[in-house]
Amino acid sequence: MTTSVSSTDTLTRDALAVLQPGFTGTTAPDWLLRRVGEGLGAVGVFGRNVRTPEQLTALTRQLRAEREDLLVAIDEESGDVTRLEVVHGSSFPGNYALGSVDDVHLTRAVAQELGRRLAECGVDLNWAPSADVNANASNPVIGVRSFGADPRLVARHTAAYVEGLQASGVAACTKHFPGHGDTAVDSHHAIPRIDVDLDTFHARELVPFRAAIAAGSQSVMSAHILLPALDPDRPGTVSPTILTGLLREEMGYEGLIVTDGIEMEAISKTYGLEQGTVLAIAAGCDAICVGGGLCDEEPVLRLRDALVGAVRSGELPEERLADAAARVRALTSWTRRARGVVPEPGAEVQEGTAPGTGVSSDIGLVAARRAVRVTGSGDRLTEAAYVATFNPVANIAVGGETPWGIAAGLAALLPGTEADTFTAESDDAAAAALAAAGERRIVAVVRDEHRHAWMRQALDALLVARPDTIVVEMGLPQSEPRGALYAATHGAARVCGEAAVEAITDVKS
What we know:
single chain, alpha/beta, six-stranded mixed beta sheet, globular
């Protein structure tokens, strides 16, 4: 049961200031507007809240009509993880595609154009980029969300992304500190554990975060991972050793520290929602992300009251909560100055205007084209084909709402093309695909084939029966290239699919 508190109470306002909740609907519910008026520091936008840029713009205006200095955050990594374009797929390739091109100027330009679009919609904090080094290719939650497996490559592209995004006045949130790349468990479901020595950790996981800090990343997101070499008992989000000792004191980071979703089971099932929140703030976090799964008023009130109660009981120092709230407000001030809402001291800016980028609006497709790698000596498509898409279960970060693949694009270019989608539950997917294809050439679309035995077996059978099959890998291209043609897109964003269609037909849209 929640307690009744005064909206003018300083302690209560500080407790609300550190929360970044989500909500349902494409307009702001009344409860959210009330809490914003009482001092809620930020609101998180997810795919369920977005249908069009125009609708999102109206939503952020509605929120700021209640209070101008509200942070509006979004989880827009682009690529496979998109909220801004959840309905149709992203106009920008994700990190792995950018890392495969390895042109930091391109990465900076992509991030800057993304930032411009977010700023136009009224979003001013992006929970991106992922700075995780993808040391484990079988990682169930990172994969193409990472720039790659080389720490130096990840570092230079993380820095470029931060610079590009923030040049548009949108604050970056570099994640998932201290590094989620070498995990075999998804922290949405349990606590992942990274068993590496400190030398490896400093030479691998920390390199991109140091680059992000040097580039001026306005915020960093904590990871719910256990790193015994640093703290054998507590995962990063609730570890003073990792957040205060390492990130603040050793690495010298002064910006905002945001938790990954506090309702993720790595925290909520281990500590409980309220206690996990109190421990996170006590450990050094400044803001609590909640609302990916819990998206109504109840968790906001529960977390508000838990923080107030922890201060009053002496469990959480009042000055620690006040410091966290001050950092949230400082980030809000930065975004308003960066967007020209309020002027920088001594600077002349045109009020109400966001900085222009000078970047081509189709930079995402340009980048996706550069990321496609085609091998094999087979002929490209010139007539109607049959597309067999092998669809794995998406992790929670990616979600299942956003369409992916090449079937629609190929059918638009080559009328008469037909398609089916197969999953791990499909009965004899290869036989079904062969029967449906008839005489048409087959295009097999896979995603992380190396992680899915059922997918690999279906592809084996297809290639034995039809060696002229074209294979398009839209995840990590860890398996050996095969098929008459093999196209690796390094991600499943909409533009990656468009670039793949061009590559296997030799026709540009």
